[in-house]
Amino acid sequence: MPLSRQLSDLIALARSVLRDLRAWPVRGPRLVDELECVLSVLLAIAFAHALEVRHVGWAAFSGYMVMRSHVWPSFKRGALRVLGTVAGAAAAWALAPQALPSLWLTGLALFLVGLATFYLMMVSPRGYAWLFTGLTFAMVLVDGLHRPEEIAAFARTRVVEVAAGTAACVIVSALSTLLVRRHLRSGFQSGYEWWVERLIPWHATAFVHALQAAVALALVPLAWHFLGLEALGQAAITIAVVMAVPLHAVAANRTRAKLVHRFVGCAFGALIATGVLLLAHGSVAAILAAVVLAVVIGRHIENGRHGIDYVGTQFVLAMLVVLVPDNFHAPHLEVGLQRVAGVLLGIALLEPVRWAIRLPASRAGDVSPSGQRGDAGGD
């Protein structure tokens, strides 16, 4: 892509973000949604620390992503997220003894599971659960590269992290539905619609898109072998959430814009989070203030009407996984910086793969273009 076009896209994206931030609500359903997300994230952090999970930021992001405008869709989305997480963790735990002794077998397992789950994510009515099956499988197996003897603990903590964030979200959503939202004059459909309206047994575009994600995931063990990066699991997460694009967007040739938005949001959030870590000097109050601000800004952009919602989602993801410390008594700058490196490595692994494996040209009628902001993944 010509450099002039890239700069033009980035300038247009920046203008859209600024336009949306100028329209900040002072009341109404959109503000309620943003405050719900803040409370859900903070409660998820509290639950995660009480349960002593390994990655508090992942629980916090679950609390953010599950939130919808009513308790029932929040519950359904959370149930699929937990179900997929349990399936992925169990599969990684079962295959780890055979896969982990060999770098190539680990890469092959990531490729095969990634290909299957990402394809099903795009064509199945329960795509959200399939996304988390593949994502959790990759997270647990990549973590096992560092310490294979702790693979069962890794699998267990992933389930607890997602369950803690989901429980926090459902509690906040239920209270808001009963006490706040029923008094609002009009409803508000926040966030994404994440299902595909019809099951498509075979779709070439979905397969090639899943193939791109699977090849990028298969490269993660090689990157670990050569780089030895502790937070390499973040690279797998980045690849998965960046490629969680709905089928109708891929078939309508909107993938490039969506992925640019995801790249920008993720990279921008990681860089800002790094700056906060450097300036906070371990201050818990400063870190929590930055987390709250990031959630409000990200959700505001996500719920905007300028077609840049993915920027907000990825911005929050990067901020939470980098900023939220696993131990508030002794937050470590090194851990946050390693996670930033993992985010950037995931992007660096994915982009050459997408360039080498091109999506086929879409055909009219391949997939229904319905669903305004549909997202199989929502991450």
Q: What labels would you give this structure?
A:
mainly alpha; 0% strand; 379 residues
Structural summary, described in words:
With about 375 residues, the protein is mostly helical. It has one domain (about 10-180, about 195-355). About 70% of the residues lie in helices and about 0% in strands. It has 15 helices and no strands. Helix 3 (about 55-65) packs parallel to helix 7 (about 150-180), helix 3 (about 55-65) runs antiparallel to helix 14 and helix 14 runs antiparallel to helix 15 (about 335-355). It is globular.
Summarize the structure.
The protein is mostly helical. It is 72% helix and 0% strand.
How many helices does DSSP assign?
15
Give the overall pLDDT as a whole number.
Answer: 79
**What characterizes the major β-sheet?**
none
Distance between the termini: 26 Å
Q: Based on DSSP secondary structure assignment, what is the total number of beta strands?
A: 0
How large is the radius of gyration? 19 Å
Write the layout of secondary structure elements.
Blueprint: H1 3-22, H2 29-51, H3 56-65, H4 71-99, H5 103-123, H6 127-146, H7 151-179, H8 204-218, H9 220-227, H10 233-242, H11 247-251, H12 255-280, H13 284-302, H14 309-323, H15 333-356
